[in-house]
Amino acid sequence: MEFLAQPGGAVNGTVRVPGDKSISHRSIMFGAIADGTTTVEGFLEGEDALSTLKAFQAMGVEIEGPDAGRVTIHGVGRDGLQAPAGELYMGNSGTSMRLLAGLLAGQPFDVTMTGDVSLSKRPMERVAAPLREMGAVVETAEGGRPPLTLRGGQQLKAIDYVLPMASAQVKSCVLLAGMYAEGETRTTEPAPTRDHSERMLKGFGYPVTVNGATATLSGGHRLKAVHIDVPADISSAAFFMVAASIAPGADLTLQHVGINPTRIGIINILREMGGDITLSNEREVGGEPVADIRVRYAPLKGIDIPEEQVPLAIDEFPVLFIAAACAEGRTVLRGAEELRVKESDRIQVMADGLVSLGVNAQATPDGIIIDGGPIGGGRVNSHHDHRIAMSFSVAALRASDTIHIEDCDNVATSFPNFVELATQVGMRIEVSK
Ligand code: S3P
């Protein structure tokens, strides 16, 4: 599928973007191994979250929905999962593969997880290494890539794991394995990353303590079913936040957006660039802070992005690079090498796309340098990466000609109704093929 993003357009109105991807994944995982029936609303009906849902169905968990964001999970209890009949296909979803590796490492059965071309290139050694330290038997393909096989029937033991990189997936993987391990498992992270696992485990009644950068839990406790209201995904809202910031005259409100402090780098960075963003109706929903976010057009300026914001905006950089291209002056990002191992190499792919639209952008080993200036039309390839495809769609608001964006199918992994909502607010995206 290709998008033809037409130049110009408006960004006005009020929209609610789909449910948070990270929270949707975890609602299925924890609901599946809880005692009792978990109900979810606001669930992301995107392919990634559905990969997790199907994996648990394949392991014998009865799950109804999703139907208009509602899902009912009949929990089988902590030891109730059954061996799947075949391999578990995780599609494009790194979160599914890495978190399930932890959850399944201590099960009595073997599991093999596979993925699509993008996921098959992504590093899994970062989860295999700590799991092996815990006594799991983990096999990967060459270079630590998928498929990932876990040999069941191992008694795991707790570890004290100091993460070599800021990764919520690795942290969560180790903590989930820790639920099935003997003793107290601890993770210590080099910088704060999303803490949805810790929050939601507590919501399910599983004792977790968090002390600064260290999260601790011990094995053997049970989870109790709950109701989960999934907030709108700030990572999806981010496309509209940048769209409204760069489109003259824009005034947009995004409803019920999750504003967990580990996720708000997009707000902090856009504000530092001069963005006009106001939060209202701040409240807490099921242990997660939520707000309505109003964004109005404002001229942006280039900045040196503070490094401590990197993990807090890790999924938002592709679209932040579009903001930088529209800003006055130079934007410099450093300390973001993790972007090179996302659904695509987001530093190189964005630099290549920006350059082909006439923007002065230069990739560096751990970041990028972008000089704001005019954006032309042209052809860009999103390399199977949903966030690259949506970012260049946003760029068209300020482009002088059509931007052809190739390889857009994967937008459905996180934001299935992106084109519909973008059109509703006044953007001009045509879908072809
Ligand atoms: C996620 C963690 C992040 C993020 C991904 C979702 C999660 O990955 O990029 O989209 O749900 O835990 P890393 O842990 O690899 O940074």
Description:
A 4-stranded mixed beta sheet has the order 23-24-1-25. It has a 4-stranded mixed beta sheet with strand order 2-17-19-18. Strands 4-5-3-16 form a 4-stranded mixed beta sheet, with helices on one face. It is an alpha/beta fold. It is globular. The model has no long low-confidence stretch (mean pLDDT 98). β8 (137-141) and β9 (145-151) form a beta hairpin. The protein folds into 2 domains: 2-19 and 231-432, Alpha-beta prism (UDP-n-acetylglucosamine1-carboxyvinyl-transferase, Chain); 21-229, Enolpyruvate transferase domain (UDP-n-acetylglucosamine1-carboxyvinyl-transferase, Chain). Helices cover 29% and strands 27% of the residues.
Give descriptors for this structure.
single chain, 433 residues, alpha/beta, 27% strand, 4-stranded mixed beta sheet, UDP-n-acetylglucosamine1-carboxyvinyl-transferase, Chain, binds shikimate-3-phosphate
**Average pLDDT for all residues:** 98
Largest sheet: 4 strands, mixed
Total number of beta strands: 25
Overall helicity: 25-40%
CATH H level, superfamily name of the largest domain = Enolpyruvate transferase domain
Class of the largest domain in CATH?
Answer: Alpha Beta
State which percent range the strand residues make up.
25-35%
Class inferred from helices and paired strands: alpha/beta
Number of domains: 2
Q: What is the name of the CATH architecture of the largest domain?
A: Alpha-beta prism
Rg for CA atoms? 21 Å
3D shape: globular
Structure annotation, total helices: 13
Quote the CATH topology of the largest domain.
UDP-n-acetylglucosamine1-carboxyvinyl-transferase, Chain
* Ends apart, CA distance between termini: 5 Å
Q: Can you list the ligands bound to this structure?
A: shikimate-3-phosphate
